[in-house]
Design a protein that fits this description.
The chain is an all-alpha fold and 329 residues long. It has 15 helices and no strands.
């Protein structure tokens, strides 16, 4: 029975991976038929290398703030809470690399727990901190993004026919529904685990007992989200100058789609929503795709830095052991 369960799990993971790749390929094919490649090439010529470097540097600052939030959340929970801020910053970047590259059920969250455990912490406390960090991050993201959208108000124009090609609207909608179903299935598989339910209950108890600290963490998270969104100013300034509040709205709100645990080589429903949100304020389809591509490229650069630094810190040992840690027990 014990041998059968891992085998079934691996089979399920292979099926899910295949479905994700099929959905991605179909969506990319439709997208290539729907956009003007030449216009995208011309848009890329408007971006300077300096603007991209400044953009990546600004995103790195926001990631340091995210690491600070993580450090603060673990201050009273971890067995050994005095983990250097730069270590947590690196762990976040490494987790990004794992999420993008590893073709398995291993997630960036598992990587973050493993890196905390490497500093002498127990899995139960590491997982509790991670859940609290995710909760604070999502709550603050929703607060900032919805606030920005309310301020933008009439600047948003929802024209479904302009966002989706009418001839493919049924096909695209069907694919999105399938992706959502896969994401919900993945979430259900995780939640049905009794250990996970226990950890969620424990994490909520910790939140209740440390409400003041969580409030401080919430405001740091808001600052990190604003910093992350505002960093895109360097990209928009080159092709479609926008007020900072509009940039926050069109960039941060789509990030909520990343709650769905579904991505292939770093591409998730969030990228599609980012293109759509830009088009809602009048940005052309090709410009929106170009900006979104550069944001994805920046994620690759940051993730690669996490991989390279890990090679210097721990060699390839971490990656050799990673596949044996397919679940957090």
């Amino acid at each position: 029975m014990n041998k059968q369960q891992p085998a079934d799990k691996k089979k399920t993971n292979r099926i899910l991976q295949a479905l994700k790749w099929i959905a991605l390929i179909v969506l990319l094919y439709i997208g290539s038929r729907y956009i003007n490649i030449q216009d995208i090439r011309e848009t890329f010529q408007n971006f300077s290398i300096l603007s991209f470097i400044l953009y990546v540097a600004a995103i790195s600052i926001s990631r340091i703030l995210y690491a600070w939030r993580w450090k603060l959340n673990g201050k009273k929970i971890l067995n050994y809470p005095k983990i250097p801020l730069l270590y947590l910053y690196h762990a976040n970047n490494l987790a990004e690399f794992v999420t993008i590259v590893m073709p398995s059920s291993i997630t960036g969250e598992v990587t973050r727990v493993i890196k905390m455990n490497a500093r002498g912490n127990k899995t139960i406390s590491s997982t509790a901190v991670l859940m609290i960090d995710r909760f604070v991050g999502i709550a603050s993201m929703a607060f900032i993004s919805f606030g920005a959208l309310l301020i933008m108000g009439r600047d948003l124009q929802i024209d479904l026919n302009n966002i989706l090609p009418s001839r493919n609207i049924i096909l695209i909608t069907s694919i999105l529904v399938i992706l959502l179903a896969i994401g919900l299935f993945l979430a259900w598989r995780r939640f049905k685990n009794a250990n996970l339910r226990e950890k969620i209950i424990q994490a909520w108890g910790v939140i209740s007992a440390n409400s003041k600290q969580i409030v401080v963490s919430f405001f740091i998270s808001c600052l990190a989200h604003i910093s992350f969104s505002a960093s895109h100013y360097f990209l928009f300034q080159e092709v479609y100058p926008l007020p900072i509040i509009d940039i926050i709205g069109v960039i941060l709100f789509p990030q909520l789609a990343r709650i769905i645990p579904l991505s292939v080589i770093g591409i998730s429903p969030g990228e599609g929503m980012m293109v759509a949100s830009q088009m809602m304020i009048g940005i052309s389809r090709e410009t929106a795709v170009a900006v979104t591509f550069l944001t994805l490229l920046a994620r690759y650069v940051i993730a690669l830095s996490g991989f390279i630094i890990e090679l210097f810190i721990d060699g390839i040992r971490f990656f050799r052991n990673l596949n044996s840690s397919e679940s957090i027990e």
